[in-house]
């Protein structure tokens, strides 16, 4: 049934007694990690099989220094292999199938490769030339992306792939492999074709609740992407579901699905081959998917079209022993509730770990519950005293060697909120004697959030989530996208304190009101600023980033906004409109980008703004002073308020507000930064994966602002003086 059969033998470097068979390990040891099998590109040497491991299913690290784990020339006739699909068999073996194709010679091919292994380390492979073996398909011009699934009804492994014949379009075919997985038993049969008679490729089948879900890529249409067809039978009856399951408008291919260990969650991954990256999307029903952001998934390599399976700790250990890599993070995280998971910093090169600890947690009695790289164990466990400095941990590697890591645990009050938030506005409410923080809800692709939340605190350190106070899709009739950069004022109206919440939505500014700082807020029903006023001469810029300021000298309120320009005007007494005749352009200089913040101290009005772009590590805050709320502005020669601290890997510090502790001259700056430590490596997505921080703001005797150094530790809890 095949012309050539090659047997590849990779000599094992360890005793067979030391390694459990796949069947034994599956039954005696739970899955603990994930193996990613992939190739890396179209250039010479990149069309080969690679391995990567992950502890959590989201963060992957290449094994074997991201070099091939098997010699391509020994298993391929063309000199290139692509689209590796790996399956754990019910018989304890592993099965892998590949496209035999070297694209330097063109995109036509007629061969696929079948491979079988007992241990993931040694593979026996067979090449099958479909055009030569099956006369019905002697004219095929390509055979792409084979995959394997076990057919429980017939007790055989089914191989399926797409083929193209002249004058037609790519169709999915299948055939059963013989008992030793070296050949196909019979002529391939049609499994699925696209109802629109367009090409479909890269099929991936997974079974769930007695149904089979076939994910595939459509080709040749104006809107192409990943779709799914569902059937009660493995070999027939697939009916396409409506819509596309990939969560991007970018070109995609090579989808694959795996189930998270001990979870009902499935991950759909696909190759964004034009962009050179992968995207993961999660689902519990295999029909509705939500993309995972750049903060959730990381890889220290650039994969193409691959698959992921769970592996046991013993299997991971032997993979790491056989295919080691330098600078793997041998410690990958910590499970302790006292530790801020989002901000753990592991430096594999320095062999160090920084654990940010919540303010009320004990450093002298801390069990960090460290997590290790798959296949690595840790000698020291239990409670440690971190109050006097770092602790050393010993990591045991599968080859018998050890590695020492130093672990630091330190109180970190920055960020002040868990999760992703940005553009923070803050007030002290006289109504209930608490601070309220009003941020942008962040972490959404391209700043696409649609709701606002607020948080309350009595000391600026411990914050309580008060929930959603305004949802554009539910509460606002005139805008339903881009909920950004709010501000708020508390003002007495007719003897009662009222709250006026100005917010950016759909690149305009809205206004909602409430009787309580935590809402509920009621939208005014129309944009507060919907068009750029003629008085603003500067061209371009968005109608965003409002700021409201109530002058403590006379109680008058002022409103500011702008991106690319700073506009300002006095508000009317009802706070629901501004006085047109007072509208002024206050743009300070060429450093102004957005994010105006105005406050008053010791006879001076301070104007702050953000410079550069929120996606830039150099996003930072500058200031000017004035003798009135509408300027003119006086710009000090040295006017930097806060900027990045590369030594501590703090970047993108900007879009701030300022708060004074009532009854004191204590001032604090509230700002956002890139999520740390992942943000600096994210590229553009760092601009919508931000965190809110608070640091002390101090002044010189002449009232000038002393530049703030952003910190990890943040501030200590504040106390409001008794009246």
Automatic annotation (TrEMBL):
Site feature Important for catalytic activity, responsible for pKa modulation of the active site Glu and correct orientation of both the proton donor and substrate, where: 545
Single GO term (MF): hydrolase activity, hydrolyzing O-glycosyl compounds
SUPFAM superfamilies: Arabinanase/levansucrase/invertase
Pfam families (alphabetical): Glyco_hydro_43
Keywords noted in UniProt: Carbohydrate metabolism, Glycosidase, Hydrolase, Polysaccharide degradation, Signal, Xylan degradation
Signal peptide: 1-20
InterPro entries, sorted: Glyco_hydro_43 (IPR006710), Glyco_hydro_beta-prop_sf (IPR023296), Glycosyl_Hydrlase_43_Enz (IPR052176)
Transmembrane segments: none
Source taxon at top rank: Bacteria
Active site: 423 (proton acceptor), 594 (proton donor)
One GO BP annotation of this record: xylan catabolic process
UniProt record similarity statement: Belongs to the glycosyl hydrolase 43 family.
Name of the protein in its database record: Putative beta-xylosidase
Organism lineage string: Bacteria, Pseudomonadati, Bacteroidota, Flavobacteriia, Flavobacteriales
């Amino acid at each position: 049934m095949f012309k050539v059969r090659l047997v590849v033998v990779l000599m094992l470097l360890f005793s067979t007694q030391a390694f459990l068979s796949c069947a034994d390990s599956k039954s005696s040891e739970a899955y603990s990690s994930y193996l990613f099998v992939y190739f890396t590109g179209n250039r010479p040497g990149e069309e080969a099989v690679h391995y990567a491991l992950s502890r959590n299913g989201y963060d992957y690290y290449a094994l074997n220094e991201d070099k091939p784990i098997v010699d391509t020339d020994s298993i391929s006739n063309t000199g290139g292999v692509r689209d590796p699909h790996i399956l754990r068999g019910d018989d304890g073996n592993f099965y892998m199938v590949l496209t035999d194709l070297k694209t330097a010679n063109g995109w036509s091919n007629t061969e696929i490769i079948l491979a079988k292994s007992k241990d993931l380390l040694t593979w026996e492979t067979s090449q099958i030339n479909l055009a030569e073996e099956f006369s019905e398909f002697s004219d095929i011009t390509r055979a792409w992306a084979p995959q394997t699934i076990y057919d429980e009804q017939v007790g055989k492994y089914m191989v399926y792939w797409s083929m193209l014949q002249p004058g037609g379009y790519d169709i999915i075919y299948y055939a059963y492999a013989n008992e030793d997985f070296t050949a196909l038993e019979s002529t391939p049969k049609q499994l699925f074709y696209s109802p629109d008679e367009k090409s479909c490729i890269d099929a991936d089948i997974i079974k769930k609740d007695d149904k089979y879900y076939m994910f595939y890529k459509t080709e040749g249409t104006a809107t192409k992407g990943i779709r799914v067809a569902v059937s009660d039978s493995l070999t027939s009856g697939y009916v396409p579901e409506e819509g596309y399951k990939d969560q991007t408008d970018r070109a995609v291919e090579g989808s694959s699905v795996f189930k998270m260990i001990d979870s009902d969650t499935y991950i759909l991954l696909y190759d964004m081959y034009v962009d050179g990256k992968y995207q993961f999307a999660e689902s519990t029903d295999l029909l509705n998917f939500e993309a995972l952001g750049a903060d959730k998934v990381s890889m220290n390599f650039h994969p193409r079209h691959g698959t992921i399976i769970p592996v046991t700790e013993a299997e991971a250990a032997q993979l790491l022993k056989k295919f080691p890599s330098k600078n793997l993070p041998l410690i990958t995280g910590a499970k302790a509730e006292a530790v801020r998971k989002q901000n753990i910093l592991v430096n594999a090169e320095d062999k160090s770990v920084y654990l940010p600890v919540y303010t009320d947690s004990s450093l002298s009695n801390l069990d960090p519950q460290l997590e290790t790289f798959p296949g690595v164990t840790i000698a020291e466990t239990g409670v440690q005293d971190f109050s006097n400095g770092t602790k050393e941990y010993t990591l045991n590697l599968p080859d018998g060697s050890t590695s020492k890591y130093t672990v630091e645990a330190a109180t970190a009050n920055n960020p002040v909120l868990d999760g992703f938030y940005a553009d923070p506005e803050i007030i002290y409410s006289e109504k209930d004697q608490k601070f309220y923080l009003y941020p942008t809800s962040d972490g959404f692709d391209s700043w696409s959030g649609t709701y606002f939340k607020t948080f309350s605190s009595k000391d600026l350190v411990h914050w309580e989530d008060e929930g959603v106070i305004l949802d554009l899709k539910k509460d606002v009739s005139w805008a339903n996208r881009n909920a950004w950069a709010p501000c708020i004022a508390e003002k007495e109206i007719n003897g009662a304190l009222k709250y006026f919440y100005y917010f950016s939505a759909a690149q305009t500014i809205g206004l909602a009101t409430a009787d309580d700082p935590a809402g509920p807020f009621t939208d005014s029903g129309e944009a507060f600023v919907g068009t750029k006023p003629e008085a603003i001469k500067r061209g371009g810029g968005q109608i965003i980033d409002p700021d409201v300021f109530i002058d403590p000298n006379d109680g008058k309120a002022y409103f500011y906004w702008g991106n690319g320009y700073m506009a300002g005007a006095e508000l009317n007494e009802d706070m629901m409109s501004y006085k047109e005749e007072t509208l002024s352009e206050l743009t300070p200089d060429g450093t102004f980008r957005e994010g105006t913040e105005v406050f008053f101290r010791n006879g001076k009005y301070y104007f702050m703004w953000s410079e550069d772009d929120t996606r830039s590590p150099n996003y930072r805050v500058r200031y000017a002073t004035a003798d009135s709320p509408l300027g003119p502005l006086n710009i000090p020669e040295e006017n930097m308020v806060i900027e990045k601290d590369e030594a501590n890997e703090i970047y993108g510090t900007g879009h701030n507000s300022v708060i004074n502790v009532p009854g004191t001259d204590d001032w604090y700056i509230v700002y956002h930064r890139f999520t740390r430590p992942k943000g600096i490596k994210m590229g553009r997505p760092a601009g919508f994966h931000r965190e809110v921080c608070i640091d002390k703001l101090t002044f010189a005797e002449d009232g000038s602002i002393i530049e703030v150094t952003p910190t990890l530790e943040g501030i200590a809890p504040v106390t409001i003086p008794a009246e």
